[in-house]
Amino acid sequence: MSKPLISRVLMILAMMFCTIAQPTLGADPSSDVIVIKDGELEITEQEMQYALKLVPESVRKLAQDDPGTRYELLTEIVLPRKKAALASAFNPSQDEYWELRFAEIAARQKIISTKLLAEYPVPDFKALALERYTLQPEKYGLVPEERKGSHILFRSPPGLDREPLREKATNVLAELRSGAVTFTEAVELYSEDPGTAKKGGLLDRWITYGDPSISPPFSEALFAVDQPGLYSEVTDTQFGLHIIRLEAIKPSRIQEFDEVKSKVLTEIVKEYRTLAQQEINSRFLISEDAEIDVEALDRLFAQPTQ
Fold this sequence. Notes:
By secondary structure, the chain is of the alpha+beta class. The protein contains 13 helices and eight strands.
């Protein structure tokens, strides 16, 4: 989000806070202890207590003992309130008024939706989770095959003629397959990947097929090798030409239910809450008794949005 847009949102929210009446939460806010008074701005103990709930615990702990962090935190709390006080002195334009109004509606709607959703306590879905896992174990528990490989890189930026280099790489591959040179020797002699050359060409991570962080031709070549110790064909990537050796394979497996139970439960609870929200929303649909000015709506829909 850009800085101008962030500032715009902050100002709208600040104006919104000025227009929404403060609810009475048990104690009378007017009799609450004032913890900050800066000119006309007053922040009560109740308000500060809630504001601190929105602050990450790590920051709160720092602010407890470090005066600099505490000052920065208090500034972040005071700043939007001062903006709100300034905003209340201005008359918003028509667009600003409706932008403010819709922000207020969204905030109130979020509050009431949370309260209504609390009427739907989440049942114990463990039995349903086990049933889903039993019916679709691969969906929830499949761990794909992983492979580890080493390589020799013949560096060649895109756009250069690679044919002379390809002939060289092909000859090195033939020597490796015939045993005329060891892989370690070939890495020392030819590899132009400084990150792996000092490790004997080893890529120090396990790779899954289609790993988005790995060049697709490299991944495909690695998974085309039949067994550890064998080599791929000379493979093109954006970095150059590679000879890839398969080092090890971790076969795919299905995780046990206990390993994925939380994942299955999370999916079910999300579905439950979505259905609950749909049921809540059904209470607030346009009623059959609603009066709608069709001519006015036709006129409004026909107007350009800009």
